[in-house]
Task: structure prediction
Amino acid sequence: MLDKTITDYIDKVAREYNADAKIHCERVSMIIKRLNNYIDRKIELSNNEIEGLLDKLVGYYTVTLNFPLSKGVNIVRAVKFEESNSKKRCYAKVSRLSYIPKELSHASRLGRLNKEGEVIFYGCLNENDDGIPVAFSEVNIQEGEDVNILKSKLKEELMVRYIGVFDYYKRGVEPPFKVHPNFKLTYEYQRDKFNNYLMVAYQLCDAFFSDILRRHGHGRLYKVTSILASLFLEGGQTDALFYSSVQTEGAAVLAIKPCKIDEKVEHMKALSMHLKKDYGYSIYEAPTLYNGVIKGGDIEWQKC
Result:
């Protein structure tokens, strides 16, 4: 059963917006077209204009729900090894495999869910090591390259906001990853309370968010998605964002606040792997060369 705060909010939106639902639907469509035109280099928008347009979508036409990702869930992160003077092909510090330290945040490049100079931890869910190929694909590992893997586990619940999940229900399919049942209940409650135009307005928002987080990236796209992420992550209620992998269809990836990595995540072990063969579709042949034991902030590597 849905929490009363959710049903009360949807009831309130229906009372206020149903009467002018067509106007709201057209407004959402216009905002999305402007943002897509910016991404496609057809128009120019300032950062403030982008944020203002996204804020309207997030603030007025999005039902955003946080649900806990359970204690004990495994996360994996991949980092290409890019130093040329190491025989082991292994990074010595955990920090090199985790998020960029605060004192080096100025070196952080614009990413899908982080602004330039802003730090975030990107990881993949990892049950039975099924997240390792996803992590490979997320860093665009190439044949002949070496990659270091950091395996971690949640030591406390992580409050996660799922982006784009309602778009699956709109298309009549279940999400390819496990989500809280209240998402579907919320979607069905909206569909019951909103008239057709208002429901379309909300569907458009979720479809747009899902779309831009799955598109292959470039600078203008990342300008929009990183601002969107900052709006979803502002305040203290959300620890992380959960969305579909760009590279691996149906796989789930996470963008976690660095402070929550320190507070709620325990790093368990590391691996150094060599990509021998990329067969396509996130299927790889990648033998493990070294196992890494976490000792505080250091990694002690042992040859396999």
Q: What stands out?
A: The mean pLDDT is 92.
